[in-house]
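Exam revision sheet. Question 4 asks you to relate a sequence to its structure. Input first:
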Amino acid sequence: MLLEARNLSFAYPGQPEVLSGADLALATGERLCLEGANGAGKSTLLQILVGLLLPQVGTVVAFGRERRAERDFHEVRCRAGLVFQDPDDQLFCPTVAEDVAFGPLNTGHSRGEAAAIVARVLDELRLSHLRDRVTHKLSGGEKRLVTLAAVLAMEPQVLLLDEPTNALDEPTRERLIGILHGLPQAMIIVSHDPLFRRSVATRSVRLIEGRVQAVDDGQRDIAHGPRIARQS
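Answer key, structure tokens:
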């Protein structure tokens, strides 16, 4: 397994538990959709998996190792890329190119190497025309695709996507579905959108009363079509 949450319990200060014995596992090649009501703890679970929050009870196992302290999660955050629900929480550089380059530059790549990564990722996502745009002037859909590009620039093994279709129009939503089908990474995708889930999921689970339950709704094999080859 790439990522495992084992018996996680978590509560924010002064609040009741949002996770209460939650278990979740992501295998190679899966696009696992996580659904649940508002406030069920879906975003919390994603943040625990990459160490942005630490559970009061339970264990995270990532890439074959148990992770407990902050130092344990440095590697995890390089290998598992989290795309936040609100793009404005993730985009902070003046231009698109600078935002996409930020991760590679901060993981030891030279400026030339980072520039090549930016060019490749923007080209693969058909976002090259946005390269020099000011990020805060992008549309909501453009910002969402740029946050995905910034995470893919880190070449992660796993993608964690929190409500990726929020504020997307229909063409951009369909474009995102095509992009996700073409990516090799295993994914955990939080989404309220049932049509989107059925379009991308290889497996679905639901978070109810702090625990993860299987969903048997016929989604398992719907998304197994030929993958779109990534450009090299």
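Marking note for examiners. Residues 219-232 have pLDDT under 50 and may be disordered.
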